[in-house]
Amino acid sequence: MNKTRLEAFSDGVLAIIITIMILEIKVPHGDQFTDLMPLVSKFFSYILSFIYVGIYWNNHHYLIHSLSKVNGKILWANLHLLFWLSLIPVATGWMGEHNFAKASMTLYGVVLLFSSIAYFILQRTIINSEGENSVLAKAIGKDVKGKVSTILYLVGIICSFYYEWISGVAYFVVSMLWLIPDKRIEKVFASKN
């Protein structure tokens, strides 16, 4: 399998994830702006999750771009990532439906945490395949943003049992850390040309 097929499949799954999330937001029955009020928490949870899926889509592109070959381990690591990302619509829907309640914030954080772990596993699988001197290995470096994100997810999960607004802030901060695409791989590619 070449990397184009892997990227196309992953892009398709991510597009379906976004589609499922927006389909959870139903059109209000009334014709007044006030009829939109019950959708506010669903809309905000959708925005946050849309940003997260967009971040994964963007950075996944860079990961795949760094590949010279695809093997079975990479395929399974990629499917592992897609599995966790495919749970985002469920967590998003539950969180939006119940106005960011504690249990829903916990589930959302767990899904985000395991998505980030799966992304890390995919990174390491690619680095193991491509070598420690590969473009990706050089670009990732110490991966401070990845480590900070993991810590913030853990803080968010723990705080969701007590103060769900703190977990919301933690999840939002992580999304803002990654909102600007990770340029490390792009910079390494540019320096090689």
Automatic annotation (TrEMBL):
<protein>
    <submittedName>
        <fullName>TMEM175 family protein</fullName>
    </submittedName>
</protein>
<dbReference type="InterPro" id="IPR010617">
    <property type="entry name" value="TMEM175-like"/>
</dbReference>
<dbReference type="Pfam" id="PF06736">
    <property type="entry name" value="TMEM175"/>
</dbReference>
<keyword id="KW-0472">Membrane</keyword>
<dbReference type="GO" id="GO:0015252">
    <property type="term" value="F:proton channel activity"/>
</dbReference>
<feature type="transmembrane region" description="Helical">
    <location>
        <begin position="77"/>
        <end position="95"/>
    </location>
</feature>
<feature type="transmembrane region" description="Helical">
    <location>
        <begin position="151"/>
        <end position="180"/>
    </location>
</feature>
<comment type="similarity">
    <text>Belongs to the TMEM175 family.</text>
</comment>
<feature type="transmembrane region" description="Helical">
    <location>
        <begin position="107"/>
        <end position="127"/>
    </location>
</feature>
<keyword id="KW-0631">Potassium channel</keyword>
<feature type="transmembrane region" description="Helical">
    <location>
        <begin position="39"/>
        <end position="57"/>
    </location>
</feature>
<dbReference type="GO" id="GO:0005267">
    <property type="term" value="F:potassium channel activity"/>
</dbReference>
<keyword id="KW-0406">Ion transport</keyword>
<dbReference type="GO" id="GO:0016020">
    <property type="term" value="C:membrane"/>
</dbReference>
<feature type="transmembrane region" description="Helical">
    <location>
        <begin position="6"/>
        <end position="27"/>
    </location>
</feature>
<keyword id="KW-0407">Ion channel</keyword>
<keyword id="KW-0813">Transport</keyword>
<keyword id="KW-0812">Transmembrane</keyword>
<keyword id="KW-0633">Potassium transport</keyword>
<keyword id="KW-1133">Transmembrane helix</keyword>
<keyword id="KW-0630">Potassium</keyword>
